[in-house]
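Hello again,

I reread your note about wanting to compare the complex against the isolated chains. To keep things tidy I'm splitting this into two emails, and this first one only covers the full assembly. Below are the input lines as submitted, including protein chains and any nucleic acid or small-molecule components. They are followed by the predicted structure of everything together. The single-chain runs will come separately.
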Amino acid sequence: MFTGWHILASFLWIAPYSANAREIVPGSQDTLNAYMIPFFGQSWSVFAPEPINGDYHFNVRATLADGSETGWVSATDVEISMIRYNLFPPRAGIQSNEVASSYKDAYDSITEDQRNVVGGDFAVDEWEVGLQAALEAQVAADTDAAATDGADTAANTAEIDDLIAQEHRTTAYATQVAYAIWGEEDVEKVQYRVSRQNIIPFAERHNPSAERPEPTIVLPGWRGPIIEDHQSSENFAKVFRDQFERSTR
Amino acid sequence: MSAPTTPDAGSRSHTSEAAEASKAQEAEATPSSASPIARFFAFIGSIIAAAWMGFANAIGNALEFLERWLFNGKKAVYGIAVTRIIFGLTACGLLLSNFTTRLYTFGSGSAWNGEIAEPVSDFPKIWIFSAFHVVAANDVAFTLLYLVLLVLAVLFVLGWRFRVVLPVFFVMWVGFIEMNDMVGDQGDNMFRIAMILMFFTDAASRWSLDAKRRAKKGEWFAPDSSPGQIGTVLHNLALIALTAQVAFVYGSGALFKAQGSPWASGYAVYDPLQTARFGTWPILSDLITAWGPLVAVGTWGSILLQCAFLLALLSRPTRLIALVGILSFHIMIGVLMGLPWFSLTMIAIDSIFIRDRSWKRLADGTSRRWRAAMRQEAAVA
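Full-complex prediction:
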């Protein structure tokens, strides 16, 4: 009996989502959630419906104590070099990729005007509060403008929250990259550039003059460094710096 | 999983004789003077009766088959032992290949991802799974736990005191792998789910240190005692659940893929292989995607194989095709896409679909050859 229930629940959970199929279980979605999460949590829409067809890049630069700006360093190039031509790739090699893709997703879901806000510099202490306020102010301004147009715009609070969370994590990562390359004492501000570039389309793969499409670039402004509690910049730098030297040699 | 070899007890032939007899009576009861229409309806009636009897018999036989299958000995004991061994090797491999970057990805070097402050996964918040999370910021303690986990993984391969090692390893492994949600993949989920089901199986009854000990000291329970019977039923039910799990995963994977135009157009495998993240061997990626028809074989083949998997298991020739196909599919993913541990997890589970007889033949053949080779060497020396 129990095996039967487990198999039915797994079937409904694993199959593509179908509200009407899940009605066969009393309590439907809630019952399934309660049974499957967390032990049987899983999702199998892998490489589907459309497999990934582009690369993310994550570049970092810093403003140093003497006021000078550094050049860009590609964190993705450094990390990806850990997994390329490696039969047993470490998970370390995909972090910047994941950071970049999550950041870009959050950025793409806010409004045009809000993206302009993100493009500005937020480098003073407690800058995240300022950024959040500026993004919310943008909503208010848009709503006022829309009210005069007679259109209706709802506040995108969830999207703003997600962006702020991504800003926090991405800046914390960029801070570690900057510390690893230019030294903890020297780095005053960091900036990152997130881009995504599609591959050469399948049909063009044998065309010698084919080039990859232009990347879409997201360039937020300068940010004040963020260091999480318990962060060991040394343990980050040891791995990142070694790999940086190895990959740029 | 093999079909039972005991011959049918004969109940089927008995019931169908009874059906025949009742049909014969029906025929006699129909008066010969009846009109052709009445005779026609009598004919229809007998067809319906026969169909109903056939249906009832089929259900009865199926239930009987299932009961015999469940109670009559543990199935796929070698297959699940292979699953255990490959799982252990997968864990060892994953731990070793992340060892030098462990602090960077999971430990104090990774605090920037916010997981030490607030874990993303549910597991580190459940106290029994929280050991790794608690020591994440402490390099020495984290490394010690990491090494303990590695030792447990080795014991997992060897099948030493598996009833104790499995739960301890499970709890520590889940706590470890969920430390950094961002770098996880579906292989982690499959590994965890299969291990939960493995709790109910006798995965260390063959090719393990436990098996040696049990051969010497005897089993806990005799196979036909009631605890022994319960063990057998749980083992076999868990195998059914595991089979359902993989079959659904493949089936659903096929459905999800079938929605996408790159898959329908026969070139989808090219795309990820050209990215830096999932094309970790760029030269091989170019080579294998150069000839269009081969790309189509890989793309369509993946979908067809995945959706046909469960049904293909049912007969021997199709099972061979399915297993060889799915093995190549996973090797390709494991090597070319930089996902070795995900692939090994799936391969490990698919081992249960190779019959015990085949595993045994393979093992006997190997050991015979090994002994022969060793003898030759001794003779030369």
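For quick reference: Chain B touches chain A through 75 residues (CB under 8 Å).

B.
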